[in-house]
């Protein structure tokens, strides 16, 4: 499409079929029930918010509003309101990352992936990311650490099978094979972060004692035994000795509220 036929910047109704999905999608998955609810809302109340797109070669690449576009497809609508903007590739990536982080229902893994984009593609420090998105630097670092975990851990956290704190505790297991075994147990039975830390401490201690016996021919106490072990507080995100950790019984909704702070 030549420039004379391009739509001007601003709000327009464009064909749903002329839109293309974002070049990179930061959501690991989009809940089908969530989409159905959004589609019902659009059907009953109308399209209250336009999507944002950039025009490329006669098509419209979605900058944000991907779910609303998918909901329109479910409703088999022919047109959708869109705000057409002019942005470079870097500007689009930056907009997507910051817009996605503002969403309330991102999983920790998805949130971390957006921080990783800002860090790797734009060279932002943790402090700059925190300032841009309005979060504490300690939270940004914690979410970045989550996307450094093995894929199996990320999937379990993303699906809500284990909490980020349990994942952090199990990740400290020095034996990769045993670490995955502990992860399977945690997913199957459901455990607290305190229990996860105890599992890891016991295994790491056994491993060190076994190494001492092999190397020295005796079973003396490990030089690491008795050293404090720390975990991240879910509220202030500061370190706390596992021997001093206090446990609360929380429902899923209350845990989400605390995790978002």
Automatic annotation (TrEMBL):
Compositionally biased spans, kind Basic and acidic residues: 206-215
Keyword Repressor tagged: no
Keywords: Chromosome partition
Ranges of residues in domain ParB-like N-terminal: 12-101
Region (Disordered): 206-226
SUPFAM superfamilies tied to this protein: KorB DNA-binding domain-like, Multiheme cytochromes, ParB/Sulfiredoxin
GO annotation, biological process: chromosome segregation; positive regulation of sporulation resulting in formation of a cellular spore
GO molecular function: DNA binding
Cross-referenced SMART domains: ParB
Gene Ontology cellular-component annotations: chromosome
The keyword Endoplasmic reticulum belongs to this UniProt entry's keyword annotation: no
Pfam families noted in UniProt: HTH_ParB, ParB_N
NCBIfam families registered for this protein in UniProt: parB_part
Protein name: ParB-like N-terminal domain-containing protein
């Amino acid at each position: 499409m030549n420039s004379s036929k391009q739509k001007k910047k601003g709000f327009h109704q464009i064909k749903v079929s002329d839109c293309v999905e974002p070049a990179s999608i930061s959501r690991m998955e989009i809940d089908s029930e969530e989409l159905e609810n959004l589609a019902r809302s659009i059907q009953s109340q109308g399209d209250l918010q336009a999507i944002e797109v950039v025009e490329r070669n006669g098509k419209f690449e979605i900058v944000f509003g991907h779910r609303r576009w998918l909901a329109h497809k479910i409703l088999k609508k022919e047109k959708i309101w869109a705000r057409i903007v002019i942005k470079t590739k870097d500007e689009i990536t930056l907009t997507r990352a910051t817009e996605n982080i503002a969403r309330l229902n991102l999983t920790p893994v998805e949130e971390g992936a957006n921080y990783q984009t800002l860090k790797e593609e734009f060279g932002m420090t943790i402090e700059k990311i925190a300032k841009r998105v309005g979060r504490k630097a300690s939270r940004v670092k914690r979410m970045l650490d989550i996307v450094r975990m093995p894929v199996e851990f990320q999937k379990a956290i993303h699906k809500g099978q284990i909490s980020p704190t349990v994942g952090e505790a199990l990740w400290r297991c020095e034996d990769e094979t045993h670490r995955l075994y502990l992860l399977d147990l945690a997913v199957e039975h459901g455990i607290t972060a305190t229990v996860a830390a105890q599992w890891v401490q016991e295994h790491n201690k056994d491993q060190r004692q076994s190494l001492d016996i092999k190397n020295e021919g005796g079973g003396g106490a490990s030089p690491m035994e008795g050293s404090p072990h720390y975990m991240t507080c879910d509220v202030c995100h500061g370190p706390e000795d596992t021997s001093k950790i206090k446990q609360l019984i929380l429902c899923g909704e209350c845990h989400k509220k605390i995790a978002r702070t």
